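hey so u asked for the seq, here:
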Amino acid sequence: MKLHQKGFLLITICKSGGIWDQQLINKVFAEYDESGDFREKSIRITLDELAAAGLVKRTDNKLEIINGKTKLIFKYQISDFGITRMVDTGLLLP
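ran it, structure tokens below
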């Protein structure tokens, strides 16, 4: 059984030290064999939820052309609170 996507996103962000949302989306698509606009938007919403909860923080942003569309993308980094919660839930070993 695979890890739930929020857990996957948190672990991937934590391991990277800082990663752009488009890279995260590509990793989720590869890991869970998904694709499409709806799934991409769902992942972006999940990242917004993680940021709103204080588990991750946005450290940078830029406009980028992706598939012919200009998009605002964000770079994410795990927060100290995110690390604490990951340890509490078993996603990360102390």
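The chain has four helices and three strands. The first strand starts at residue 19 and ends at 20.
lmk if thats what u needed
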